[in-house]
Amino acid sequence: MASHRRPKQPSRTRVTVLTTAAAAAVALSSQAANAAPSEKLSKDEVKAKVDKLYEQAEQATEKYNGAKEKQEKLQKEISTIQDNVARGQEDLNKLRDGLGTMASAQYRSGGIDPSVQLFLSSDPDDYLDKASTLDQLSGQQVEALKKIQDKQRELAQDRAEATDKLKDLAATRTELGKKKKEVQGKLAEAQRLLNTLTAKEKADLAAKEERANRSSSERVQLGNTSSASGRAGAAFSAAQSKIGSPYVYGATGPSSFDCSGLTSWAYAQAGVSIPRTSQAQANAGQRIYSQSDLKVGDLVIFYGDQHHVGLYAGNGQVLHAPRTGTVVRYESINNMPFQFGVRI
After folding, report:
1. pLDDT at 19
2. Which is more confident, 38 or 279?
3. For this structure, is 165 an active site residue?
4. 146-182, pLDDT tens digit by residue?
5. Which of 107, 156, 212, 308 makes an SS bond possible with 302, Cβ 3.0 to 4.6 Å?
6. Which whole-number Å values give the CA distances from 116 to 90, 108, 167, in the listed order?
7. Active site residue: 176, 220, 259, 262, which one?
8. Residue 257, burial from CB neighbour count under 10 angstroms (0-12, 13-18, 19+)
9. Which of 151, 242, 308, 323 is catalytic?
């Protein structure tokens, strides 16, 4: 007869040991799965990752530029409003002094008009709302009170506007700090990757980039740049004078630039003021959607979010400040996703 005894259950100690072993196996498996990324990347893999980080850094840079421009604009507006408030307060004080002089004259001639006395010890807005009191005032007093009331309302509006702009300024400064931190983080990660390369690998990449730069420069020299004229030509010539200047995020010259810093600086030398950021520059003139219709000095906008801009140099080349670690240089227009040109 078959035995009907229940099978012996593993002891609690044995279950714990098995569970621990299983957990260890899972951990080892996870470590093995994550081990691959820590392996040394090839030179080309490092370059691809670094290029992507630089692109992300430039996206953040243009947002940083926008926040910085907004901050500067708000600071100027707030300063103007505060000056207006100070002048307005002086005017209000003079109006009040004038009404006080009027009251003094009445006192000397036999006593202060009760309506004036009431005004001097209360809010004129509240006082003037009581229409019946106007009948007790002379025409001169009514005019003085109305001027005071108008000035007080104007000052209240200015102070409220200043308060709103100060709040906006605080939020903008916070955004500016976040974008600066984001840019610095991307650049630091790119540098960490570059530091994994050997000296020879770094030299190989630098030599490859130098060859590309020389080829682009030769293509521009062989091309026809006679279409550069007027202010666009002057802007292009100004940018040419800065070839070799380093890319620095947030820089607008004259010794270093980021992409939109170069284009805005170049057009400023030609006497033309254009917006600071690449996204704003994309809307600064007539759009040119065909590369064959571009003329030297036209702005060239790249990437779907319009975070990069350069100047058309002719013969399929652009003159621009590419990214951190590079200098102002020529490059093929096809090295980046072309969106459209902008004729200022």
Report:
1. 41
2. 279
3. no
4. 888 888 888 889 899 999 999 999 999 999 999 999 9
5. 308
6. 21, 14, 39
7. 259
8. buried
9. 308
